[in-house]
What does this fold into?
Amino acid sequence: MNAVVVDARGAAAPWLDEIARQGELRWRVHKFGGSCLEDLEGFRRVLDILQSEAPVRCFVVVSAVRGVTDALLGLFERARAGEPDRAGVELLISQHTALAHALAPDEARTLAAGFQRDGEELAWLLAQVRTAPRGGYGLVDRIAGIGEYWSSRLLVAALRQRGVEAQDVDARELLLVEATQRGADAIAWDESARLVAAASARWPEALIVAPGFVARSRDGGAATLGRNGSDLSAAAFARLLDAESLTVWKDVAGVLSADPRLIRRARTAPELSYAEAEELAAAGARVLHPDTLRPLRRANVPVLVRSSRDARQPGSRIVGVPTGCGAARAVTLEEDTVSVSVRGVAGSLVLSALERAGVQPRALVQCNARRSLDLVITAADRSRAEPAFAGSLGPFAQVEWRAGLALLRAVRAGFGGDARRMAALYTALADLRVPILGSFQDSHDHGLSVLIAGDHAHAALNAVHARLCHGTAKLAVAVVGTGLVGGALLRQLQQHPACGDDLRLVAVANSRSVLIDAEGITPDTATARLNWEGKPLGVEAAVAALQDSDAHVKILIDATPAESVARRHAEWLAAGVHVVSANKIAQGTSLARWREVRSGCRAGKTQYGDAATVGAGLPVLKTLRRLQGAGDGLLALEGVFSGSLSFLFNAYDGSRPFSELLAEARERGYTEPDPRADLSGGDVARKLLILARAAGIAIEETDVVVQGLVPAELTALPAEDFFARIDEVDAQIARQYAEAAAQGKVLRYIATLDRTGKAQVGPQAVRRDHPCATLSGADNLFVLTTARYHERPLVISGPGAGAEVTAQALLADALEIATTV
Ligand SMILES: NC(=O)C1=CN([C@@H]2O[C@H](COP(=O)(O)OP(=O)(O)OC[C@H]3O[C@@H](n4cnc5c(N)ncnc54)[C@H](O)[C@@H]3O)[C@@H](O)[C@H]2O)C=CC1
Ligand SMILES: N[C@@H](CC=O)C(=O)O
It folds into this structure.
């Protein structure tokens, strides 16, 4: 079956039919720059990447080995100066021969012989340079392109050595260029398309490798595509092959949100539009040349920019309509600029004067009504612009210059129309007390530029980048525990609209490993990445990641049952990290530990989110605290505080063993990781202690009378042995149930507390119409009698266990802290 090919260019493109006839599989084009092929290790990384691509149809475009094109141009210049450098030629031959021996021993001799032959030809060409017409420049394309041929041959041989079917093709037989044009405009698209279609019909189902940078001019001579020409070659092949994608492999992780030399925390922009990427390129970001993007944009071929040094990273994706969060894709800074304000003449006159002087304005605002034009040019261009104005603007023009400025640009489509984003930019500058001397929205609305004094430039870039590109960095979160509750939390985080923007997940940990990513972890991928990339660093590493983060609010979420994690809560709180916990140990064990948490909060001016620890997020603690705050003291508290025990006793009627119901409660995620924590009454006792202390009743663990359901001899057994003897629990429950039934009652696991601190938890036989007897599922019940809720108590009831409700309590606590800090 033939693939249906739609010509995204909207023009007739007969060659596409030919490509389509060759089968359903679309090509993926890969481009490896010299930085990827810098040495043996670089080649090996490239080979690994390509091996993992099979069996997709790959068309690979390669640059010369790093430094080789410059070396060839150096040889050319020395030849022009009459200093032929035979040793330089030999050096290149031996460099490539060594690579051949290491990468493809089976074909090394043939490759070496080829390099030697080409080397002889190179030496001959260099010898002709001095006497050749046009100062030898007619030969430079033949000389400069040799490196690409050599690296493509090396790569093919190395692939074959690894058993990958590969074939090299000569790009000079496929890409035709007009000598009079430059960049993408130079490519003779229709003729090149016919050549590619005809050649590709003969290509086997193999990986094809072509040298980048080189092409053929219409007169049949060798041509090259200029500096960074390999990127353009790859873009041209991607368009001509109607490729599924073009991946440009570099030594950086993608398109960065700022110049990494200025912003240490510059991060990879996950997605950009072609226009945004072009805007960045025009603003000087060394990503992809706009010439590379233009043909792809027209053909709508997605471009991936990835690092061959870390092929696991997804890199940046450049597409027609990007999605994703983040207020700006990137922030750029042009230093050494000057502003010029011209009044009293038509703007068109000013612009043509600049054009004649060869000066490209970096930003401009025209006000027709006031016949004024404000524009920004580079300081270097001023020496050409000033005389041009003097000669052509006439006597009425008022020209005002201001030097020592910098142009800071936030790149993102629609930025200038989004009040929230603009406000974020202005606020970042206002916080630094940096005056905005002018603001310029580009005509295509791909971003907004502001003009500031040059001496503020770096601080301003930092602040704007932190505010716009790092999410708003309002809230950084570390999640410890990725089990039932932690897993549900990660899913909820993924769905939350603030995620990735205002809220950044910087660390995830479980009992085995920790994953840190200051740029933000996509919650969806967190567990997979933790398993794959995590390191056994301990929870402290997650806390350090929070502390390193530039977010305004840093929150550690504890979704573990671990004592070792709970033990550190107070310390982290004191160090400025807010803690949100489902883990009840820090507040529900000794009074001293509860007090440490309180003093941690005071010392670090931090908050402790504990809604999940009682009633799985039912608004019990919050209500109790509000009553306390208003002077309404607790007189008594009674109810069912365990979701799992509620479920067990609501369902138990003697027809199924208690242990069978326990298995179901575990399956539903109601029990503690070790269900004996529930059956022993320990979990309920912890909740009672947390509630009592929140109500100002400072009782100790030993003050709670606990009657459990686990026979004493089973409490200390390893879990496996306990489950092997679970029928002993069944027998005990069956007995207690029968005794209660004989009195016309049912069993419920009830907690009680009075204002004197008398506290107990345990099974009770209650009448069938008792409020605790009328619950269903895993519902909890909290009956609060207070000074003001005296005649009729305040009752809170609802699901008291389960991963989803518990996770939402954690998330809600974290968001509440973020908004109240
Ligand atoms: N299941 C429920 O309905 C509710 C549970 N909770 C509490 O939530 C917490 C988690 O419960 P589940 O998710 O059911 O447990 P789980 O056993 O499914 O998951 C526990 C997670 O914590 C990690 N962990 C254990 N020790 C650790 C350590 N020392 N350092 C780092 N990570 C460690 C484990 O690797 C695992 O990822 C418990 O404290 C539980 O009491 C609170 C309210 C309701
Ligand atoms: N295991 C607990 C879960 C919530 O804390 C319970 O059963 O209530």
Observations:
- The chain is about 40% helix and 20% strand.
